[in-house]
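Annual report, structural modelling task.

Input specification for the iron/sulfur cluster complex:
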Amino acid sequence: MDRENQEIISDLKTYLEYLKGMGIVSLPASEMKADEPSQSTMITLEDVRKELGDCKRCKLHRGRKTIVFGEGNEKATLMLIGEGPGYDEDVQGRPFVGKAGQLLTKIIQSINLSREEVYIANIIKCRPPQNRNPQPDEIQNCHPFLMKQISVIQPKIICALGTFSAQTLLKTGAKITALRGKLYDLEGIKVIPTYHPAFLLRNPEKKREVWEDMKKIAEWINNNDKTKEME
Ligand code: SF4
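The model returned the following structure:
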């Protein structure tokens, strides 16, 4: 075995140990495919939606009305990723359309962008019963499809909304209070976590911190990507 292959196997072992520590003991084949560059250049969001189909890969399918796939600009510079659908989203099949969604729209507009210019998705695509937190097996089953959406859209920067989004994307157990407002890297894409709009509705005094985080996103886009929203 040559040195390069040995390094790949060593990296893979480290990653699998990390997943084991998170309580994840198996990976669906589709997750392994999500990171393959050859696929990312070939597939479209429509392909990803078709592959998802009438998904029953986790128990959340039992209580949902609609799969909330995500919506927005397929070439977005900025992608915003929340936790999961609530009541309104489940009924309408669209992400962030309830009260928290109206607040998210204002947050997006605060940096002179519109919902149509960005792409909005969630960590899980089906509403958990009574809006409970998503569970590890549900995140594990849904995550490959979010990764494929990211791989197709190729945003320059992702705003992770809330604890579950930030922890899942950044593969960490750290709290959102510690993560928010800082710039991280996800396979070459910048990630800035901030508070979830639903949390802001309950804690309006935190709006200032979200405003600061959004200003950082706007500054990063201004400094690094002046053209993509115009395409
Ligand atoms: S949450 Fe994701 S994995 Fe689970 S049933 Fe819905 S689409 Fe499938």
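Confidence is low (pLDDT under 50) at residues 25-40.
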